[in-house]
């Protein structure tokens, strides 16, 4: 961190949790400080403007979380006499100005409508891969991906359109699935007994198709090793590797480069988190179409549906409103 000794002095004036957040925010503009070879409190308006543009935050909420501590640090440096000109410019980086620092491409590409999600599923050859998208979109993922990894077909009641979800803390909630297409994909995955490598086009293997391990779990791996049955629940690494292969491509372990195209093109900003948020936004939008402007109780209902801690309600509300504004 540029000029770290002084910044540590600034952090020391705050509780540990706040100091940790402030440090993370100031790290976002560290490259700019190195480039300009000076502390951010000595930046000109143009330099600070460029620094904030370089953070590439996807939402207005994320911009606020990063920009606010940086501005607080500049004010502190001014009050402590470290700013030579004693002219404060922090007031110029508030209000509507913050919209300039939302990474528009990422914001527009990170969140998708439900019909777009189903459209992407049509380009996936294997139902077990499609389930990753639809489960995340329905909010069935959770901390450490526990909900998705541990979901069994027996947890799905197709007649009542309800999925019983258990999170990592053992808490249970019933998720009602409004869209039949989600249920149809899950039914397809239940019937599926084999897996096509490389989304049906694997250039590296002569054998294109393998049996899926017969387990009660929705997310399954292929049966091509002797230890296939050793652990019926797939690992987090397996799941995240599958997600990477779908959205970003095949990654070379030695170089870190992507050596094969992803199954889905132009989706590099999508992941399990953004898919779940997309589903949350979709849920709020549908609720808003029925009720009009949403109340706090409505947002609480959405958080419960998506397994979101109610302490994060205001954050998710702001993100939804930011997304809705950008989508117009």
Give your account of this protein's structure.
- The chain has 328 residues and is mainly alpha-helical.
- It has three domains: 4-102; 114-260, hpI Integrase, Chain A (Orthogonal Bundle), CATH 1.10.443; 272-327, no CATH class.
- Helix content is 47%, strand content 7%.
- The protein contains 14 helices and seven strands.
- The chain has helices spanning 4-11, 16-27, 30-36, 45-53, 60-79, 104-110, 114-121, 127-137, 146-149, 180-191, 236-247, 272-291, 296-305, 313-327, and strands at 156-157, 162-166, 172-176, 194-196, 209-211, 250-251, 258-260.
- Strands 1-2-3 form a three-stranded antiparallel sheet, with no helix packed on it.
- Strand 2 and strand 3 (172-176) form a beta hairpin.
- Helix 2 (16-27) packs across helix 5, helix 8 packs across helix 12 (272-291) and helix 12 packs across helix 13 (296-305).
- The longest helix has 20 residues, at 60-79.
- The two termini are 39 Å apart.
- The mean pLDDT is 87.
Provide the CATH architecture of the largest domain: Orthogonal Bundle
Kindly report the spatial arrangement of strands forming the biggest sheet. Answer: 1-2-3
| Radius of gyration, CA atoms, in whole angstroms | 23 Å
Specify the CATH class of the largest domain.
Answer: Mainly Alpha
Q: What percent of residues are in strands?
A: 5-15%
Instruction: Output the structural class.
Output: mainly alpha
| Beta strands, count | 7
Largest sheet: 3 strands, antiparallel
The number of helices is: 14
Write the layout of secondary structure elements.
Elements: H1 4-11, H2 16-27, H3 30-36, H4 45-53, H5 60-79, H6 104-110, H7 114-121, H8 127-137, H9 146-149, E1 156-157, E2 162-166, E3 172-176, H10 180-191, E4 194-196, E5 209-211, H11 236-247, E6 250-251, E7 258-260, H12 272-291, H13 296-305, H14 313-327
Antiparallel strand pairs: 1-2, 2-3, 4-5, 6-7
Helix pairs in contact: 2-5, 7-8, 8-10, 8-12, 12-13, 12-14
């Amino acid at each position: 961190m540029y000029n770290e000794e002084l910044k540590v002095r600034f952090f020391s004036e705050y509780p540990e949790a706040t100091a940790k957040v402030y440090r993370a925010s100031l790290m976002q503009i560290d490259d700019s400080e190195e480039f300009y070879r000076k502390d951010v409190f000595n930046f000109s308006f143009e330099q600070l403007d460029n620094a904030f543009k370089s953070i590439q935050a996807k939402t207005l909420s994320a911009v606020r979380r990063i920009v606010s501590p940086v501005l607080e640090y500049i004010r502190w440096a001014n009050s402590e006499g470290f700013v030579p000109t004693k002219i404060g410019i922090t007031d110029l980086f508030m209000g509507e100005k913050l919209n300039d620092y939302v990474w528009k491409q990422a914001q527009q590409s990170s969140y998708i409508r439900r019909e777009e999600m189903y459209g992407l599923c049509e380009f996936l050859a294997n139902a077990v891969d499609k389930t990753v998208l639809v489960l995340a979109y329905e909010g069935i993922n959770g901390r450490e991906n526990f909900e998705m990894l541990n979901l069994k077909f027996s947890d799905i009641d197709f007649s009542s359109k309800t999925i019983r979800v258990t999170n990592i803390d053992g808490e249970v909630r019933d998720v009602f699935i409004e869209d039949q297409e989600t249920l149809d994909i899950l039914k397809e995955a239940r019937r599926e007994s084999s897996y096509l490598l490389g989304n049906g086009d694997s250039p590296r293997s002569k054998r294109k198709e393998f049996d899926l391990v017969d387990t009660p779990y929705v997310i399954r791996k292929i049966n091509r090793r002797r230890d296939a049955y050793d652990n019926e629940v797939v690992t987090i690494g397996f799941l995240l590797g599958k997600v990477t292969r779908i959205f970003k491509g095949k990654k070379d372990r030695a170089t870190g480069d992507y050596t094969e195209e992803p199954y889905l093109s132009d989706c590099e900003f999508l992941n399990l988190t953004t898919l779940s948020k997309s589903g949350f936004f979709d849920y709020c939008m549908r609720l808003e179409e029925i009720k009009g402007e949403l109340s706090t109780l409505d947002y609480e209902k959405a958080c419960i549906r998506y397994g979101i801690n109610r302490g994060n309600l205001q954050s998710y509300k702001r993100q939804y409103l930011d997304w809705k504004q950008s989508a117009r």
